[in-house]
Design a protein that fits this description.
The chain has 93 residues and is mostly helical. The protein has one domain. Helix content is 75%, strand content 0%. The chain has one helix and no strands. The longest helix has 70 residues. The chain starts with 20 loop residues before the first helix and ends with a helix.
Amino acid sequence: MKPKLKPSGTGRLKLNCDNLLSTTAFEFNLRRYDEVAATRDTLVSKYETEASAAKASREKREKELSGKVSVLEQSEGGLMGKKVELEAQAGWS
């Protein structure tokens, strides 16, 4: 029985890339780091935008509420004055 496949012999393999493996690995890791850094920058800028919008909204609500509180305090003061007047007229004090 004759073998169908012939041995490759002692021929050397041809290099496809002459870069060192460590250089290629470093470039790959650097590229991956660049992608992560870009994603991080995008997320940080998105977070900062949303945080500033939330801060502006909170300040607006606080301003509106402080105005409403001052109106309520004034009306409460007026009502307490009326109560005192009515009690004095009724002779309850």
